Amino acid sequence: MLKIFNSINNKKEKFISIRKNKVNIYVCGVTVYDTCHIGHGRTFISFDMIIRYLIYLGYKINYVRNITDIDDKIINKSYKKKISIKKLTKNNILKMKKDFKNLNLLNPNKEPLVTNNIQNIIKLIIKLLKNNNAYISYNGDVLFSIKTYKQYGYFFKKKEYNNINNLDNKIDFVLWKKSNINEPGWLSPWGIGRPGWHIECSAIYNKYLGTKIDIHGGGQDLVFPHNENEIAQSQCAFKNNIINYWMHIGMLMIDNEKMSKSKKNDFKIKKMLNNYNNEIIRCFLLSRHYRKPLIYKNNSLIKYTNILRFMYKSLQNTNPNVKTLLGKTFKKRFFEAMNDDFNISESYSVLLSLSKEINILKKKQSSKVHNFAARLRQLGKILGLLNNNPDIFLKKIIKKPLQTKNKKKFYYKYIYKINKIRNYYRTNKNWKIADKMKNKLIKLNLKIEDNINNTILYKK
Q: Is 357 one of the annotated binding-site residues?
């Protein structure tokens, strides 16, 4: 039985879908004022893993992820770059979709733009005004009145909102923002303006998924105020609005700070993909439990390059078309881990143990090696891993760690020269000098693997 940690009450709960064998999922998408970084990759690869597992369990998924294509950051960026908002967002959406495709993310069933849902947003705001949960402020903005929702702050445990009657209206949030001259806007009953951030999600998931949703997800930075505000306005507008499970992904951290565009400490997905296979990036971004923050270090991807390399080497020279799978113990451990709120550390441990078992069977020349390898492929693919031909994968990753982690050309030339000298003496069977060169490479923290035709070097 699958258990999921529900952010709304900080407990692991049995997962029971609202409709039998069907799961509705809404995930807060990207604000497209810039291209995507691997912090976005962490969030969406985590949900991709969750969705893949639910599909494997037999659920039919209806997955909706919005795109915010109107926002103050977008307006400011368009002014700065001196291009239209439409051109800016269109370019960034195309780049986002290309990045996500190259990361091998499953496509959402629907990926609605905020600008295509303005009328739905206006209708929702009208409803909140009629219910006296919203009001028009002195400057023409429409605001949500927090005092009218007595449970505000309760869901995500904000004690400062416990006595809501004593709060002033400075904390009321914007539903509709009046546009200034030369700012984009849409005609509404309150004049020309644009939607606030929080109202977008409520309007979009209500249109595409209705008022009963199994899973609502996003990054942990969205818990408050964004998700709290979503709950408030949705409960006031629809009364019977139900979201059974709230799931939040831990932030990707660099130098003890959240990786983000605004902090200018982000690594673009495209740049990472130029240096690393998408499975290496995925393996790293999934490497810590999805709820916990993940720390990015200079050698982070080297470690997971080597882990995937080990798994793929175990799959070499095995038949990918075997239909009979062995290794039920490994399967049992894997599913126990995944059913425990997607315990990725234990899942990885199972894959590595299974890879070791395959290597042992190879040494014994056991015919069962193909059946165990088939099990490894099966379990890996549930996580979005081990989809490549082993020979092709291993050939492509050989030089990448060295090429991407040290930019000093002298360093590379030095390694190349030593390795060239060593191979010369190996060919001529002068093992004494060859071993001296080998020791020099080992002192540079390199691991060496000699094949018939070449030598593979990679960082330990």
A: no
